[in-house]
């Protein structure tokens, strides 16, 4: 749906530089954009593309200027652009409605207003589904589990018994919520299974990526805090507590009974050992291994994970070792030559 630059600026609360009558009919990345598109610039490394882009307008920071490219200046261009996408483009997430005749709904299941339940969904006895929630085909909701209102569950998701999923949650394809924790005790060389009798609680406004596995607690609860976003292919073990508004990036693994504070970022392929605590507002950099607890505000890097500045210093020293070895060898040779002369 075409909009003028003025309409877009008013919608996102930005300031226009350039012709407010510029017509925008599409959205695109700064390198891919063509005439009629609006794009955004939120990373300084893309600044060289500002004048080169084919876009008709750019959303960017208040201190950015352009010779002839119309701009909308705003404090958070990335967030503003996300809003513009839904403002200009027709709704992309039109979901099906109603309950398919091939859905299997158990006894005493409570359905809220206007649920959408796809073909071959199985909802076991005693479960509940909130208002306006959507469950795509081939999903499984275990007995006595609850799913809140306005929640979206894509195909092939399994939510096992007694688990709790809040409001406005998005769970992508193939995720498993409430699988057994990895608990065994070895007796005479034989591994005996420890019953996993707890549950998983996914709080409101959480997003869970494709093929994520979140294990049920051994006794109490595995908790995913409100507003946390989890990327694809993440494993969260039993009794883990994740705080609010965390970002858990692809291929992260969190071992049992670890505690992750609020607003923590775990970058790609990071690993967290069991029974450790990572304080609020911390960042674990990609491929790091956290083997001990860290206080709030930490930036952690490497294996074993250390404060990033310390880890960088160690890394720099390690890279100097070949040169230091050659220097030491040269010094040793000189000493040996002097000893021979004075011998």
């Amino acid at each position: 749906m075409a909009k003028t630059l003025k309409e877009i600026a008013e919608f996102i609360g930005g300031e226009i530089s350039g012709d407010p009558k510029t017509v925008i009919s599409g959205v695109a990345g700064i390198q891919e954009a063509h005439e009629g598109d609006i794009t955004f610039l939120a990373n300084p490394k893309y600044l060289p593309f500002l004048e080169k882009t084919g876009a008709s307008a750019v959303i960017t920071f208040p201190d950015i200027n352009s010779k002839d490219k119309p701009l909308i200046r705003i404090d958070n261009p990335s967030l503003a652009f996300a809003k513009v996408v839904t403002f200009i483009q027709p709704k992309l997430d039109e979901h099906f409605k109603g309950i398919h005749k091939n859905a299997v709904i158990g006894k005493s299941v409570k359905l809220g207003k206007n649920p959408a339940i796809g073909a071959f969904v199985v909802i076991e006895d005693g479960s509940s589904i909130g208002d306006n929630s959507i469950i795509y085909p081939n999903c499984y909701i275990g007995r006595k589990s609850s799913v809140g209102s306005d929640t979206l569950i894509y195909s092939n998701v399994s939510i096992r018994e007694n688990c709790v999923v809040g409001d406005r949650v998005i769970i992508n394809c193939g995720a498993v919520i409430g699988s057994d924790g990895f608990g065994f005790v070895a007796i005479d060389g034989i591994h005996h299974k420890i019953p996993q009798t707890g549950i998983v609680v996914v709080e409101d406004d959480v997003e869970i990526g494709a093929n994520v596995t979140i294990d049920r607690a051994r006794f109490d609860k595995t908790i995913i805090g409100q507003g946390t976003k989890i990327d694809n292919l993440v494993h969260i073990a039993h009794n883990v507590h994740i705080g609010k508004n965390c970002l858990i990036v692809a291929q992260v693994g969190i071992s049992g009974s670890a505690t992750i504070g609020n607003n923590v970022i775990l970058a790609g392929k990071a690993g967290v050992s069991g029974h450790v605590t990572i304080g609020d507002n911390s960042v674990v950099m990609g491929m790091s291994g956290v083997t001990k607890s860290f206080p709030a505000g930490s930036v952690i890097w490497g294996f074993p994970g250390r404060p990033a500045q310390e880890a960088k210093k160690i890394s720099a020293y390690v890279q100097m070792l070949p040169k230091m070895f050659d220097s030491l060898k040269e010094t040793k040779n000189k000493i040996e030559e002097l000893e021979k002369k004075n011998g």
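The chain has a mean pLDDT of 96. Helices lie at 5-12, 77-88, 308-342.
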